[in-house]
Amino acid sequence: MKRSRVYGLHFLVVVGMLLYGSANAQAPNTMPQEPRTALEAFEKQTGTVIIKGYSEIGSVSGFGTVSVECMELIEVSAGVRQLGIVIEVKESGALDRSDRCFIDYDEMEPLLKGIDYISKVTCSSTRLLNFEAIYKTKGDFRVLTFSSGSGKIEAVVSSGYIGAVSALISMPKLSELRTIIWHAKQTLDEIK
């Protein structure tokens, strides 16, 4: 298969991922989803006072935007705290959809290492012509790097399970996102 044909195929796969999320968003998800992270479970508590502290850390843009904020949840009566980050992914285009995912504090270091690893993957990592490398968190946050067929490596960041929202970003923007997540972890380390 010629490189231009493979490039076209990869481009269609990425566009398909973006459109798949848009098409799935048309149907409402009526089933309540069980919390996948401690932050989600903590936030869904009822019958008690919860204080939510948060700080915006930063964002990156490409074909969509990815924003990161730190979060501290405090259950007042017991004095229990939960720390982590919230990542919001916004699509560009006519629908302008967004989705947020929660990442617990204890998942942040593995996420940073996962981003480091998939950022270094190249076409030489496999004997086949193209590759995809993916890292996922419990809260349905995914980072994917892939070869475009022309030798260029790009990244897709997505959030959500049914009707996922995706943003296509360059590798320098992925590195910038990794730095923002690292800064978020440092901010939480200071209040831990």
Beta fraction: 35-45%
What would you call the structural class?
A: alpha+beta
* Quantity of strands, as a count: 8
Major beta sheet, specifics? 4 strands, antiparallel
Oligomer: single chain
Radius of gyration: 18 Å
Name the overall outline: elongated
From N to C, what is the helix and strand string? HHEEEEHEEEEH
C-alpha termini separation: 54 Å
Major sheet strand order: 1-2-3-4
Unreliable stretches covering 5 or more consecutive residues: 5-13, 18-31
Number of domains: 1
Q: What is the count of DSSP helices, taking H or I runs of 4+ residues?
A: 4
Average pLDDT level? 85
* Proportion in helices: 25-40%
Notable characteristics:
8 strands; alpha+beta; 192 residues; single chain
Describe what you observe in this structure:
32% of the residues are buried. The chain has one domain. It is elongated. A hairpin with a 7-residue loop joins strand 3 (80-90) and strand 4 (98-104). The model is unreliable at 5-13 and 18-31 (pLDDT under 50). The chain starts with a helix and ends with a helix. The strands form two sheets. The chain has a four-stranded antiparallel beta sheet. The protein has 192 residues and is α+β, with helices and mostly antiparallel strands. It is built from four helices and eight strands.
